Amino acid sequence: MTDAEAVGLLAEAVATPSVSGDERRLAERLRHIAAQHGARSHIDEVGNVHALVGRGPRTVVLLSHLDTVPGAVPFEHTATLVRGRGAVDAKGPLAAMLVAALSSRDLGIRVHWVGVVEEETLWSRGAEHVRRTVPVPDAVIVGEPSGASAVTIGYKGMAEFEVRCEVPRTHTATPGPKAGEILVRALGRLLDTYGTRGNANFGDVGMVVRDGRLEPFSSACSLVFRTPPGLSPEELLRQVTATLGEGIDVVPVYDVPAVMVPRGSACVRALTRAIRLEGFRPAHKLKTGTSDMNTLSRSWQVPMATYGPGDCHQDHTDTEHILVQEYLDGIRILRTALRELDNSFREAAS
User: Fold this and answer.
1) Does residue 67 have an active-site annotation?
2) Catalytic residue of the set 89, 118, 119, 320
3) 118 catalytic, yes or no?
């Protein structure tokens, strides 16, 4: 695939809406493109699109997500950038990985590219399906925007709790605290302890409040925490329950653990060397969000890293865009990283 064709693929992907739960049109188009370029391609039971290239004894999975958050960003395609919802998160990495996979036939490895659904939702349904149904590979690179010259080696975990306060029904003019008042005051104590400021540092706990409903006799909301390595959901639940105090029920909804991979991991080393070989100074990042690397690492204990072109500060913004040159640099780095992994597998086998 030429650079012009690769940029055209990116532009088409960004121009195709694919909000979580509505990814089918994009999945079908990418399946078709992969098949046109000789890949063995299919769409699985939950809507993930797969493309397999090569038949070597070792398998490398390249996995990124099809879906985007809601919110229209006017599409724009110029000589220097592609703008639109999902340009950075994560259609730039998604398309770059597909192009790199399709050009890997000369290697001695099997490359399994996957575009998964619903990464932007709580349950990461697509990646969970892959984790449960795809044979464990020899290495994994997850596609998220790290910047073309950086590798992401860690993500915070996530835990969601539902909190609820109920009081006996009375006339609203009757003296005494109501459920909404009790919950608001309790949340104030919790925000003093955590709050969004915890999202600034990898080692701290961050929190946001969402989906709230305040009524006099029954009030509830959801709390989403970003958790550092070493903090279990059970310990966080204990801390949150104690801070909220009496009269507030706390129910765990979902959690995914934090993940950190060693800098000596085969994938980190391959990407770091590829970045250097392509003329850049490599960096390693720790991110305060979560990704499908968290999901896959629940049970896939193999070399893993996250990489992708694009500025992560553009994620979910109203001006989301990716620079064309960075996207093309990302493709070249991914191609080189695959070659580095192939070489490391050969050396290990000899």
Assistant:
1) yes
2) 119
3) no
